Q: What sequence folds into this?
């Protein structure tokens, strides 16, 4: 190679290195004759230095990325005509939180399987209304599902992991509760007529914040006043208590 050609060749090598790839061809014969290149994934292709300098890189990776992107879009589209674009009420429940509070309220009732879902169903769910209902619960509370099983408009998220299985310490579900709520609020903000959050811990506040940001009326569904986060209660438009206690010792 001539001295000037050698300089250009080195420059092309630098570009390839920057892309974590390699210039395979060992000589340079002009800007418009194709050289062989390899990307970091090991794809090889031929391209002119002129194109590479302009910013072109691996065509195989480009196709893969486009496919991946289309897949993601298709996945999202799968949700789109929810209730045919009509308004709906969104419910998201932290079952762990509600059951824990119920156990406190109905203390001494033995080890029967406790669940607020029968009462929630009676009070809130209505087949004539458009309602999307999401439940998050740890594995040991999966029995609550019997009352309201999965369907087109009822989604259960069951957390199967334990922190410490010997001590029966399950992983909390407040994170999935917030993640699910925020996802649906952001995706369907113009369709959601009301947002109901079932739970009474401050950890859930981000879901309320998101609904408020989108000006969606928000109702908190709490088991009782016991352990009800005042901050959370003050953030929502309305707090509804499932079990008003006449006598709390
Ligand atoms: Zn590639």
A:
């Amino acid at each position: 190679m001539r001295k000037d050609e050698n300089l250009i060749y080195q420059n092309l090598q630098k570009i390839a290195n920057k892309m974590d790839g390699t210039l395979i061809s060992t000589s340079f014969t002009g800007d418009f004759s194709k050289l062989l290149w390899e990307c970091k994934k090991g794809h090889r292709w031929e391209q002119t230095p002129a194109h590479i300098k302009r910013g072109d890189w691996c065509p195989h990776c480009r196709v893969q990325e486009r496919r991946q992107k289309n897949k993601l879009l298709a996945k999202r589209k799968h949700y789109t005509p929810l209730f045919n674009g009509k308004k709906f009420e969104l419910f998201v429940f932290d079952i762990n939180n509600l059951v824990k509070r119920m156990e406190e309220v109905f203390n001494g009732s033995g080890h029967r399987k406790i669940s607020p879902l029968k009462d929630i169903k009676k009070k809130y769910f209505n087949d004539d209304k458009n309602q999307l209902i999401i439940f998050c619960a740890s594995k040991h509370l999966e029995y609550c599902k019997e009352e309201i099983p999965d369907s087109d408009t009822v989604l259960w998220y069951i957390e199967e992991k334990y922190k410490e299985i010997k001590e029966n310490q399950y992983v909390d579900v407040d994170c999935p509760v917030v993640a699910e709520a925020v996802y649906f609020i952001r995706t369907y903000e113009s369709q959601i007529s009301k947002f109901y959050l079932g739970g009474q811990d401050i950890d859930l506040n981000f879901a309320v914040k998101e609904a408020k940001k989108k000006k969606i009326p928000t109702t908190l569904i709490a088991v009782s006043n016991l352990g009800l986060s005042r901050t959370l209660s003050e953030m929502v438009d309305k707090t509804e208590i499932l079990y008003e206690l006449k006598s709390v010792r």
